[in-house]
Amino acid sequence: MKPMKVRSIFLSDIHLGTRGCQADGLIAFLRDYEAEHLFLLGDIIDFWSMSRSIHWTEAQNTVVQKVLRRARHGEKVMLIPGNHDEALREYIGASFGDIHIKAEHIHETADGRHLLLLHGDEFDQVTRHHRWIAILGDIGYNLLVRFNGTLSWIRRTLRIAGYWSLAGYAKRRVKRAISFIFDFEEILIRTVRERKLDGIVCGHIHSAALRETDGVLYINCGDWVDSCTAIVEHPDGRLELIEWHQASARILPLRSAA
Question: Rounded to whole angstroms, how far apart are CA atoms 13 and 205?
Fold first, then answer.
């Protein structure tokens, strides 16, 4: 089957270098989609976790190679660092292997909308002002990811269908609380409105979303640890949130914005 050709692909929170990274699913997704633009919106390589222990697989190598190959073959690849790969922020403005590194970017869709692209950690009050809490939470989350392997084996043994992630469940519950307390999404939407833009595409909170609020698009790429989600822009400018279900080897569109 030929890959689907789209105008843009938006990915975030891949977390290469960790046990939780779903590299095999991402490889399959990239095999099924070709694009003019590939935007990597932060936490692509998890330097936080790698400072404690490194888990780097052949599949993760393949992800890096595929991205580099796309850039060499003319796909416009841009990396906007997040908090887990913040070391790359020292190289903002530089290019490596035809991959351009920027702090943020204004993307114009095919239908003329202007979207702010960034990771989003700069709007997370815990990450900005209570870094030790963020690091402690990251350590706990990685422990859940390890335990999730045992849980998956138990579910398979009991023939319980479907994939369910304990780590993802815990992460979503914590992030919902943080989002509620510090109004993460509302702050981003307000920022977009103040800058007179049409919307924002971000990552960071591992909670995929594509919705319009009072004329402003809020789009979150999700992650490739639990949800395995991406945003694609079709040639006509239509935006779609894609969830990759590796078990069924198919793509499940969740919702789209015209």
Answer: 9
